[in-house]
Amino acid sequence: MTTLHFAESLRELVGGVDVVLSDIWGVVHNGLESFPEACEALHTYRSRGGTVILITNAPRPADSVQRQLRKLGVADETYDAIVSSGDLTRLYVAEHPGRKMFWLGPERDNSIYRGLDAVTAPLEDADYIVCTGLYDDETETAEDYRGMMLQARERKLTLVCANPDIVVERGDRLIYCAGAIAELYREIGGEVIFYGKPHRPIYERAMALAGERQGHPIDRKKVLAIGDSVRTDLTGAREFGIDCLFVTRGIHAEEFEGLDQLDPASVMELFGHPPKALMRELKW
């Protein structure tokens, strides 16, 4: 294994790349503000014939994600389409009509069942759980939900995780996500269905949309994923068989501070399997 260096720009990595599958949170914005250079890089790539599909573990449908992007100053021209874990979770709910759902998450995520014939119920009466996050991610951790999860396990309820992320950036802080509760539930013996990265369905949907834009099926050798999480972005890309550009300004920022290159031992320790390249922040 060779030493892994930091790339200076996206343009040196996209020769022969037809499609970019880009993460959003940590790459395009940090939850409070957008990253102008990252947006410009994706827009420039599109202007040169490339297709950009944003893939996100946001537990909301794509149109809700788009509204948030607009509020943060991310122009529609930055990308071709959005695929969210919320979209896939909504499909699960739609395919289980009449079954009672216990929804665990903040009120801002109520679009997860908007427009669906979803029957909500308290935990003791529910047939399954949909988890979009913590009720109060500013103050709580997954451990605050251990009692609830033990109760759910006793009833053998399936938990559908609409956001496999453990943590995400909010400004300069890390906050817990639905994935933290889902992993706790799995650890205590509960059944979990994960939608979103690193799991295959979100990549399959993104590739289908890219194929529609390009007018032909997409060769995975001509796809580049971009992300900032080893657990979701890098692992998901590797298991799907596509290259990954790893952005270090995100949730792993502290681990990369002051580094200009990584020796083989450090690569193995941080990544296990290395990405195609590293970049501090996405720029053209």
TrEMBL record:
Q: Which CDD domains match?
A: HAD_like
**What are the GO MF terms of this UniProt record?**
phosphatase activity
InterPro entries according to UniProt = HAD-like_sf, HAD-SF_hydro_IIA, HAD-SF_hydro_IIA_hyp3, HAD_sf
Gene Ontology CC terms, in alphabetical order: cytoplasm
Record bears the keyword Hydrolase? yes
What the entry lists under NCBIfam families is as follows: HAD-SF-IIA, HAD-SF-IIA-hyp4
In its UniProt entry, what is this protein called? Hydrolase
Q: Which organism is it from?
A: Bradyrhizobium cosmicum
The organism's lineage is: Bacteria, Pseudomonadati, Pseudomonadota, Alphaproteobacteria, Hyphomicrobiales
